[in-house]
Design goal:
Two copies of one chain form a homodimer. By secondary structure, chain A is α/β, with parallel strands linked by helices. Chain A is built from 16 helices and 26 strands.
Chain lengths: 540, 540
């Protein structure tokens, strides 16, 4: 027997209408070269309607993919809403990929139109000739680019009516967004979000124990809008009427921290590498961060030193969240449960550096090599599997890596232990594990320790082939500028010896200028492994 | 084209499993005559499994309705979860109704079993002989009641296995709960909740801008579990792992406030009448309310004096919410938006006493007598209509009042104005309106003013027939104890004259001992109107 509740279909339209009806005066702010661009949700709504009208005029039909190739800015936000609100699919494309990857992704997605920032035109020129399905190029600017046959966004929408009526989204399971991940082997793979998944994920982000986004917030995710929907912030912020702040391409630590100060940002989020850079800047310059109430960190493990730094110096909680493109992305968050608040600060910290407990709606388990569920004892290790209404059930239009979706669970590729309190701790990526003489060594644990060392700016630990032990850990570190001339490797080794079993200690420390980064700003251990594949271990 | 997200079905089972997996040490606390009963969610889970097993053994099948007739206590909470978790329907029955209404409701619902508190056995005896479908009576106690052929809950579940496997809820739209409302004309009518509606409503309650329920909370809704699922608190609290506190039948103001103090309650909710009683008690006795962070008031309009009292004396925000059994119940909440925070305290108060803006997922409009949408100008009046995934689309098994569900909207019966900021203000119930000489008078506005008068404890304003004006307002007031001997009606009239247009002023003030209350504790204006139907207006 069915309940007798209304069949309301959760959709991006509902979010858009809510922002316009109840928060019309709240602002969307975008950094520009000549001062910040600001307008209200009321203005935003009018432009979204014009844009929706334009999309229909361009022949975009329900289900069609429309590509965006842009920084975080208000026009990108307009596309975030207008494309799904006419039933089409918002395909956010990673601007940091190489031209051949971009060609593959856009052709695979079969994008019908491509919207791009004028500053990215040189990159678009590289792959535009190879695109097979794109019928319209639109440059997100006042001025067209003839060379690319790209029309002006502003001119096109200025010609559209403001009284366009959005077609109704009649099925919440309709596709609404598409994002390719290159975190897997083989070709980049598309994750196809639905209106339902976006709506539920937005609600979850606003729950008090998740990120608690609310109307009074001024949100600024330092996460690209081409990366897992900027962690869902643009949709969730509109749902609750929060002010949204966008950095455009001004993404240096000083730009970011100035914008946070200037626009009184209350909540921000990003990968640790961004915050390592900001911490380095804060060592030398003062900024007023009194409005910031929460820094959410995800993408890689958070060093203790970062949590302590912002807590002690600014009284701002750094909260770790875990997720993937395949999980929309919120999978889990390292809230400290009230029954743990009686523990010492140090013991509480041991929970705060874990990946936390799953978000509402998300379920977890971890399985060992035999596919058996591991015990939640904090010791046993297995691959983390998740399921939930905003977790992918397959990749878009490919049979590659179908084995990741099995028995209704998605296999994340993260090797974890789960403690009796239910906290997930990622000990490694399945492909990052170091197996030395038959024993596992967690590169992640070593990296967390290294990043907490006062003289180290960046660190990554990789497995390098070894004659005797099959493979052994190599630590690659970037010293802080003040120590770059006089960095003592032996000191680092001794520091690690005080924390880990002898056989965990890297056989060598390599001092380098920068750890290579992935397109979404994480340490790129794949490239690091290639760099050091022929590394000669010191003798003895 | 559909998205490629997992088809996770939102269900009460997901809430139950989450509470057990991630919050097993958190407590459920119930006041008892001999000290408070306490156990953990881990204990709770075991008992829910036994109870689920019992229900199956009793022959309860998916879709079957199972009645509960009980106060707020841990066994009732077990039923809240066990019944929907085997696919059956939790039918919470209002213990304050008369025997013939109860007979009607239970027969209409076709309850297959009835669980009741031992203290309510005398009432059950009155209607038990007239029940047509109930096959099993179970008394929520250690001891059976032979006279009623009622078996002992504790004995029955002690015989059940603890490793019972719950059948999977495969469709989130399955019915999960049933609650009858007597707020309409004609027979009581059933509202049939689904697993989906309960889950979404639970998430919404936990959103920061709604009630922000979280793991650290200790919740105590002073709302019966037979009334709109105790405003959703039992489900939402379990979802986030909050500690739950239940008063059982100890419902006097002193009982309530002592339990809040003793169990360090952080969030509570109830109708204004309960809080008027508590305020009267707080005038004479001191209690420690330092843990209380939020009082949610709904069911009737909140007097300014109550908001001010708790704000000034205890620094506790009193937040008004609006809803109905038909809306699960959260419809709207009177959050003060950040763009209003620059207004004076008095102007902000004018928003806090409104019913607020709709919850996420809920949409609103108001229509005039011609069915035309009214303008959101704060002046125009119309009947409030709502829609959303936890709003009823029809009543259970009846065609009565089908006209309330039209065009995908539910007509609430509340007459409202909506201001340009989107705040709903209930100016009256359609059936409570006073129309004097062709002009509308809001009984609610008059009541709010009266309840803020320092000498008045309770107040209700009703329409009474009048020769010249068709009808005129009559104010019925209960003075505070200190003023009961020397209450000056003229002073009250002058007080109202300072606030309202002359033609709004009641033609008479009646001093009475108590305003009659409905079964859910609201002022019963229907009974008041009957009491005064032959009232003789004073001459002149």
């Amino acid at each position: 027997m069915h309940g007798l509740m209304m069949d309301t279909q959760l959709s991006v339209q509902l979010i858009l209408e809510r922002a316009k009806q109840f928060f019309p005066k709240k602002e969307v702010i975008t950094r520009q070269a000549n001062g910040n661009h600001r307008y209200t949700y009321a203005d935003f709504y009018q432009r979204v309607l014009r844009l929706a009208s334009l999309l229909q005029q361009l022949g975009i039909k329900p289900g069609d993919r429309v590509g965006t190739f842009a920084w975080n800015n208000y026009r990108h936000l307009e596309l975030y809403f207008a494309i799904p609100c006419i039933g089409a699919v918002l395909h956010t494309i990673n601007i940091r990929l190489a031209a051949d990857q971009l060609t593959y992704i856009i052709n695979h997605a079969e994008d019908q139109a491509l919207f791009f920032d004028p500053s990215l035109a040189p990159l678009v020129k590289q792959f535009a000739p190879h695109l097979e399905t794109v019928k319209n190029f639109i440059v997100m600017d006042e001025i067209p680019i003839e060379e690319l046959n790209a029309q002006s966004y502003e001119k096109l929408i200025s010609e559209q009516p403001t009284d366009f009526v959005l077609p109704k989204i009649t099925d919440e399971n309709m596709a609404a967004g598409l994002c390719y991940t290159s975190g897997t082997t083989g070709h980049p793979k598309g994750v196809l979000y639905s209106h339902r998944s976006i709506y539920l994920h937005s609600m979850a982000i606003c729950m008090a124990d998740m990120m608690g986004l609310c109307e009074r917030d001024r949100t600024f995710p330092v996460v690209p809008m081409f990366h897992a929907n900027a962690w869902g912030y643009p949709f969730a912020s509109a749902l609750v009427g929060a002010t949204q702040v966008f950095p455009n391409h001004f993404m240096q630590p000083r730009d970011i921290i100035q914008l946070i100060e200037q626009e009184k940002v209350t909540v921000t989020a990003g990968v640790p590498t961004i915050w390592l850079g900001i911490m380095a800047l804060l060592e030398h310059e003062n900024f007023n961060l009194e409005n910031l109430r929460l820094i959410v960190i995800g993408g890689s493990a958070v060093p203790v030193s970062m949590i302590e730094y912002f807590q002690k110096r600014y009284n701002i909680p750094v909260v770790q969240a875990w997720g993937m493109t395949e999980t929309s992305p919120l999978g889990s968050i390292a809230l400290v449960k009230s029954n743990l608040l009686s523990l010492s600060d140090e013991e509480q910290m041991s929970y705060r550096v874990k990946q936390g407990i799953p978000a509402a709606c998300v379920q977890i388990r971890a399985v060992d090599d035999d596919g058996k569920e591991i015990e939640w004892n904090g010791e046993a290790r297995g691959e983390l599997q998740v399921r939930g209404p905003w977790v992918a059930k397959s990749y878009f239009n490919t049979t590659e890596r179908a084995e990741a979706f099995c028995d209704g669970w998605f296999s994340t590729g993260d090797v974890v232990a789960i403690d009796p309190e239910g906290y997930i701790a990622i000990v490694d990526r399945t492909k990052d594990l170091i197996k030395s003489g038959g024993e596992w060594i967690s590169s992640v644990d070593l990296e967390i320790a290294l990043l907490s060392h006062p003289k180290i700016q960046e660190a990554a630990v990789i497995a390098v082939p070894h004659e005797k032990w099959v493979e052994r850990p190599l630590a690659c570190v970037v010293p802080k500028p003040a120590y770059s001339e006089q960095f003592d490797k032996e000191e680092v080794i001794n520091y690690l010896k005080s924390k880990f079993a002898p056989w965990w200690i890297p056989n060598a420390v390599e001092v380098i200028k920068e750890i290579p980064k992935t397109s979404v700003g994480k340490f790129d251990k794949k490239r690091l492994r290639i760099m050091y594949q022929d590394f000669q271990w010191p003798v003895g």
